[in-house]
Amino acid sequence: METNGEGALGLLGDPSRRAIFELLARHPCSVQELTDLLPISRPAVSQHLKVLKDGGLVVSRAEGTRRIYQLRPDGVTALRTWLDGVWQDALTGFQKQAEASTPGLEPDPNDHLNDEPEER
Amino acid sequence: METNGEGALGLLGDPSRRAIFELLARHPCSVQELTDLLPISRPAVSQHLKVLKDGGLVVSRAEGTRRIYQLRPDGVTALRTWLDGVWQDALTGFQKQAEASTPGLEPDPNDHLNDEPEER
DNA sequence: CGGTTCCGTTAGTGTTAGCTTACCGTTCGT
DNA sequence: ACGAACGGTAAGCTAACACTAACGGAACCG
């Protein structure tokens, strides 16, 4: 279990995992519920849950024959912590740049090599 | 340009991209600098920068023959916004769960509004 | 007990995505 | 104008990964 925001970000890179994450944020769910709500098969959900669990973002609790999954607060906290760190660094960076007499952000006028930015 | 936290999360899923992102958070960098600091080739850095730029997380500015890349504040803000949304949902979820297992603290008998299959 | 539901795991497959090599345009120095 | 530094792009390969299908196990119910 990592429990650090850096690893957690890697886990949330997958869209399906993000969807599961957001669903679990609303309320705990069983695998079956998640399967009904998502456009993927049950084993796929199960695999994603395993990844999320190993990554320390969710925990599971047995309830009869089904397993209820829910978010682990520490995981979300770690994410926020990591992002806040980067955010602070960025703020000081912006401040130093502002001192360095850069009045505004120039949109790179000599960027004729790359002025077609529409690609998925 | 996406400029929404959801897409940005996908971009930061890659470790190399996270590394570039964190480096740019400290101070703006040229492609050459990033290449020297990272264990990947220069074209790889360039490709990642293109992805980050299309995703609205960074901007580039021409300076002589080199391009200086730096973070775009809106991108980081979008990330925080998305994460805060999930965080709020999770908080309410935790609260409801706490109420369900802690009698007498904050009883809310009208909690049948959400479909939580509770049977033992 | 047999049947059913729910779930984890494995094997197998197809697609995606990152990395490198090579090439070319642009800008600066001499 | 020539050559070097800087960097974006194309083609290709390889590895990772997300998904399905199939099997097996564990808990409820009749």
TrEMBL record, chains A, B:
SUPFAM superfamilies: Winged helix' DNA-binding domain. The keyword Transcription regulation applies. Residues 1-91 form the HTH arsR-type domain. It comes from the Bacteria. One of its GO terms (molecular function) is DNA-binding transcription factor activity. Residues 94-120 are annotated as: Disordered. Residues 109-120 have a biased composition (Basic and acidic residues). Keywords: DNA-binding, Transcription, Transcription regulation. This is Transcriptional regulator, ArsR family.
